[in-house]
């Protein structure tokens, strides 16, 4: 259980909250100069508030760390709307998409197709054809079957499609250690060790309508140092050397995927982007030098590390209930007007969050508390264990920080809840991004 | 790992599949006389197919077991559309809702308000007012705070609102055993043991605008015998006796909640509804007799047990990939065109499913297989371990059975996937229920 002193509970840990979050003199919390109380009053709760400058500044940090904006591919699965795609484009980053609809949304936002890289373990014929005809930069091929299909489609459309091959590097993130394994029992990629990846490279190299320009690998999620990336890079670079030796082919890009860790709680420290990048780029250069190949351009795919800390979710407190957990201890259950429909991460991954009262300063003494949602399910928990001031009451506003990634993108209509409104804030101004979903929206697709 | 002989894989276990599912002579599978291949061709995949007569027959089975249709309250959270609400109404059942939108959808389907019971740990003022003004049958009150709010609102609206109190019976389902505990560390209900439930009864009894007519308790999910229900009933009936002795009040109803187990896999056996009901009703009668009170009418709240087995989800096979898991073993990864966006239960609860190829007979030899979705996440798994025939190929149709409950209702737009189409089938006819969600639907709520 995380102990939070009553006074500390009014702090907003800078490494967790959006860069422009601030506790105002009246005790309320603002983001980019806009009070969350005002947003709640105008847009209702739950509402997601995205700090535009925070999002953009993290794009720029990544761009600087990886030498050029276009080497940083924002992973849209974390959180994608057309406005998000526009911000990413304006910052000069590239974009990863992993479904036909993600691609179509990016294109609807006029994202340049040549800066889009396409992922997916099971891309349909229709999806691949859209990739080819719309001219996406790279398709990351995930199977031998896809190589054949994509080569055929590219041929039919008269295009030479740029591709990467997704390789299983045999490196797995195990909590905070990276394990080199020879086998990886998961759906993505082609095995280095078994030779499957090299066979795919040969196929791609020989395919009439494909142009192989790089390899892709991914080590995991919420990674906090360079070790896993370096280990994966060194293994995959071995394949670059073999490709150069045996096929005479020099690949331009090495896509090391995502997984850049962020701080969800005050105890965590986000990955140091500049230091990791420096360490990683030097390691790639050194390894390439030892192998006698030209170092490929390193590409990274942060999603969470850009979108995650940029947004908070604001809820209203409803029911407050003390529950006897032993004969002489109670736990306070604070229920808010959202829950597992707008944030499944606690239930799905055991995720932890930092939350604060944002409409006023709190003054109570620490009390064992659980933050729950309004769904008809006992597992509908947002924060499992906290020590929070005991003066939190119905009508207070509570915000969870770092909800920008994998919350809205995984939101459901469970219990027929409409999904929250989303707004962005910048320099004192609020701009609606997605309007709140209504029961009419939910009924609209029904055939009556 | 479940071993399925190649021949057996063509069977459709009757206790798992919809009652009108059938393997046709051409090797394909039909439901209610409609081939799933035809539905897939017309509506695309993934598509959810609901066997109307299966759903209705399970309503009737429950109604018969619990003496009158209105004693059975279908739990809408499992799966609710206006058509589902109409079926439930036509079968004479009552309806549980757990959110304002579930209530509004039921009312939009002309479900009689007096047969609606309202749940929720955190009902908003607006929700409670809608309950009162629309005249719902019962509000199941979950906190002292709610008693006060509801009494005030009922007074403002000039209504005497019928209520149940939700009680923590101190009975917990632990896998297949029921444990009597004195404390229950969860958000729902008021404790029997601490006296909190009795205090709420007194408050409700004395409240000017509330009429207390019953108590509610819930023991868990996927329960397979009467023991847990009987244990909970005997504990709660103790409170009925105390209420009778101390307040002279005879409560009409005992709502024992849901949790009726269904078979997801061939190895499981569904709860025997008739036998459990008989056992449970007799136990309630006996316990009431011993306590010297008139036995209350037993109410139950099945959701999964009615909707779950009535529907299947049909997917198309895309990528088939063999992955080396040890030096001499491979696992086949079969990827379909849906996944955790339309069925989060495997990832969220470790759920298991029965799946079959439905477009033809299979003839291959058993091979270790994992069924995965198309999402950009390695945890996007539908069936973790199976031994399936090795002749399943791209273009085949695979259906998961028993997906009627908590699949569509918890579906998301992860990776911007549109949610599947839903159709119902009856006597050879297909009727669209919910149309497939498009990228235009997803973009429609954006503020551009």
Automatic annotation (TrEMBL), chains A, B:
Pfam families: Orn_Arg_deC_N (PF02784). Keywords: Amino-acid biosynthesis, Decarboxylase, Lyase, Lysine biosynthesis, Pyridoxal phosphate. The active site is at 376 (proton donor). Substrate binds at residues 304, 345, 349, 377, 406. CDD domains: PLPDE_III_DapDC. One of its GO terms (biological process) is lysine biosynthetic process via diaminopimelate. This is Diaminopimelate decarboxylase. PROSITE patterns: ODR_DC_2_1, ODR_DC_2_2. One of its GO terms (molecular function) is pyridoxal phosphate binding. Homodimer. It catalyses: meso-2,6-diaminopimelate + H(+) = L-lysine + CO2. Its cofactor is pyridoxal 5'-phosphate. Belongs to the Orn/Lys/Arg decarboxylase class-II family. LysA subfamily. Residues 54-307 form the Orn/DAP/Arg decarboxylase 2 N-terminal domain. The lineage of its organism: Bacteria, Bacillati, Actinomycetota, Actinomycetes, Mycobacteriales.
